[in-house]
Specification:
- The complex is a heterodimer of chains A (246) and B (369).
- In chain A, the strands form 2 sheets. Chain A has a 6-stranded mixed sheet with strand order 6-7-8-3-9-10, with helices on both faces. In chain A, strands 2-1-4-5 form a 4-stranded antiparallel sheet, covered by helices on one side.
- Helix content of chain A is 30%, strand content 26%.
- Chain A is globular, with a radius of gyration of 18 Å.
- Chain A has 246 residues and is of the alpha/beta class.
- In chain A, strand 1 and strand 2 form a beta hairpin.
- Chain B contains 6 helices and 21 strands.
- Chain B is α/β, with parallel strands linked by helices.
- Chain B is globular.
- Classes of the chains: A alpha/beta (246), B alpha/beta (369).
- At the A-B interface, helix 2 and helix 3 of A face helix 4 and helix 5 of B.
């Protein structure tokens, strides 16, 4: 279970997250909505442990373990994972080497050739990671790495951005597998927090709850589908006045 | 102890092996070994390739005397003058027209005696349509307090001939190294230089020049250097593109681990319809040392394609964090990024040699890089 309590975060002295409270039980997928610049990515980066995000108050606990003082690699080893929207490219590190490096640390027993084939990554394995990859290729490469890491709690930053319809079907399906959404509710152990603007990912991953983040504050917690429909109809302004504010 | 084809003192084995020399000559057509000023080993198994010490060659073929000092100016600098006045050894290699060597030839220059000044002159004649890979392993004994090496090498690459010239250096803290190489490539010929140096030197300074004399001639200079603290590597290459359809590429990968690297490159487009590209990547591992990239492009023609790219700095923090987010500890992330930066695959070396270099890089990393 991921528990965020009264979390306040600054970047270069400027507050970006204000008293965030979120609890995501194991097996649940929650969605984070919000306009650009509201702090969605900041929240994900803070949970992951990016050093420019200064936690000034509050706590982030995963399976009862306090994360706020842990370096990123230890958070990752504790089960936190991130599906990046724009990961950096690295000259000289091939996707195959990266996958092997991750696997050697996570100890996950992944059948790499099978995973590579099912993600149509055969031609990318020998290329420098993310270097010249298309939108869809970046997502599939991220998925392969995450299958080698098998995080217990996964954060996805706009998994559908830059992806065509055909790729979306594949990527959505694989995310569904990664989050164990095909299992009975009681059998699921993986949890997730997803940022989406378009909502397409919700066609593949039925979310358990949704939030809106406005100006660094959680304004609303609701059923994800209903919330998305409301946002589509009224925009985010209404969220500020919503009675369900938590 | 196992007896090797090439006899050397056991204490020197590590250094010599690290410079790419195979003591059993496995995967080599032949070897030439100089220790201080003594030629200690000469062997050649490939038909159509003649390889003998330079003095013997000049006695046997007086006509080649005229070739000497035509590409390298004997008055170039004090070091070259010194090598001209007192050439101690070196090899002459001639590969006959149409002969394609099936494996590399290796030459080892070893400085063993304290304060020794090694001066060599090599002459390489590639006749038309021939093909050869030369591996030069240059090293100094680890127990050496001081020493120097000046190596003059003149290379003639004939029409449609292909010469790959790989040089691996493993000198020592107080050794000065000044190779003086020059190359002439005729029509359709290719010259590829690979230079690798990852360890101590006092100063290694070289600036080989290649003249692309015939249509379609190609020259590539690949350099991979790591400068430990106290070392100065002043490296570069000049290519004169003197004929139409010639191509030149200079690729530099420099790492400063506290030492100095000067990466020079000059491409002269002396003819229309040429292609020339220079690339320089530098990585600073600490706030100490220096990397200086000095690319130069020059032409008087409009119909040329000449470009350069240069980027120097520390490892991109975003890359480290990306790896850490996947559970890879910081130290492992840094080492993976650095070895990726030094990927020798870009050189297209024979697999066995590539393996050796990779192993060498690994041992550097485990040494706390």
């Amino acid at each position: 279970m991921l528990e965020i309590n009264d979390l306040c975060v600054e970047i270069h002295g400027k507050p970006v997250l204000k008293s965030i409270n979120i609890t995501i039980p194991d097996g649940e997928t929650h969605i984070l909505f919000g306009p650009n610049g509201s702090g969605k990515t900041s929240l994900l980066m803070t949970i992951m442990g990016y050093p420019q995000y200064m936690v000034t108050k509050g706590s982030i606990r995963y399976n009862s373990r306090e994360l706020t003082l842990l370096p990123m690699d230890e958070r990752s080893q504790a089960g936190i994972g991130m599906f990046f929207q724009r990961p950096p490219s690295i000259k000289g590190i091939k996707l195959s080497e990266m996958t092997e490096l991750i696997r050697s640390k996570s100890g996950v027993n992944i059948d790499t050739p099978v995973a590579v084939k099912s993600l149509h990554l055969e031609d990318l394995m020998d290329r420098d990671i993310n270097s010249g990859f298309s939108g869809g290729e970046i997502k599939r490469s991220e998925l392969l790495q995450l299958f080698a890491q098998k995080p217990g709690f996964l954060m996805l930053d706009e998994p559908e951005s830059g992806v065509d319809i055909e790729n979306m079907k594949l990527i959505g399906g694989k995310i569904r597998t990664l989050l164990e959404r095909d299992l009975e509710k009681s059998q699921r152990s993986k949890s997730a927090l997803i940022i989406t603007h378009t909502g397409y990912i919700m066609d593949y991953v039925d979310a358990d709850a949704g939030y809106t983040l406005l100006d660094g504050m959680i304004k609303c917690r609701h059923d994800a589908g209903t919330l998305f429909e409301d946002i589509k109809k009224h925009g985010f302004r209404e969220c500020g006045e919503c009675k369900n504010t938590i | 102890m196992q007896k090797h084809n090439i006899k050397i003192d056991e204490v020197d084995e590590v250094k010599i092996k690290r410079s790419g020399i195979d003591l059993d000559e496995a995967g080599r057509i032949g070897s030439f070994v100089v220790s201080n000023n003594h030629v200690t080993h000469v062997s050649m198994r490939q038909e159509g390739v003649e390889m003998i010490p330079i003095q013997d060659a000049l006695a046997k073929y007086p006509e080649y005397r005229d070739k000497l000092w035509t590409l390298v100016d004997k008055d170039k600098d004090e070091y070259t003058k010194d090598a001209y006045a007192d050439t101690q050894s070196g090899y002459f290699i001639r590969i006959k027209a149409g002969v394609k060597a099936f494996m590399p030839f290796q030459a080892c220059f070893f400085v063993k005696q304290d304060r020794f000044k090694q001066k060599v002159h090599n002459l390489i004649i590639m006749e038309d349509n021939s093909s050869l890979h030369i591996i030069n392993g240059c090293a100094a004994a680890s127990y050496l307090a001081e020493g120097s090496h000046i190596g003059v090498t003149e290379m003639f690459v004939g029409k449609n001939a292909h010469l790959m010239y790989t040089m691996i250096h493993d000198w020592a803290k107080n050794v000065e190294v000044r190779p003086r190489s020059a190359i002439r490539v005729d029509e359709g010929g290719t010259y590829i230089s690979n230079y690798i140096a990852l360890r101590d030197t006092k100063i290694t300074q070289m600036y080989p020049s290649a003249e692309l004399a015939g249509t379609g001639a190609v020259a590539k200079f690949n350099t991979l250097v790591l400068a430990p603290e106290g070392s100065v590597y002043d490296l570069g290459a000049k290519v004169m593109l003197n004929a139409e359809g010639t191509r030149a590429e200079v690729l530099n990968r420099s790492i400063s681990d506290g030492g100095t690297v000067i990466a020079r490159g000059k491409l002269e487009g002396n003819s229309p319809k040429i292609f020339a590209h220079l690339e320089c990547d530098g990585l600073m591992l600490k706030d100490k040392g220096l990397i200086s990239a000095i690319p130069e492009l020059e032409t008087r023609f409009s119909d040329v394609n000449m470009s350069h790219e240069a980027a120097i700095g520390k490892i991109d923090e975003e890359q480290i964090l990306y790896l850490m987010s996947r559970g890879i500890p910081k130290a492992d992330a840094v080492s993976a990024i650095v070895s990726g930066f030094m990927d020798v695959k870009i050189f297209g070396l024979p697999p066995a040699l590539e393996e050796e270099i990779k192993k060498s890089l690994k041992s550097l990393e485990s040494g706390g890089l």
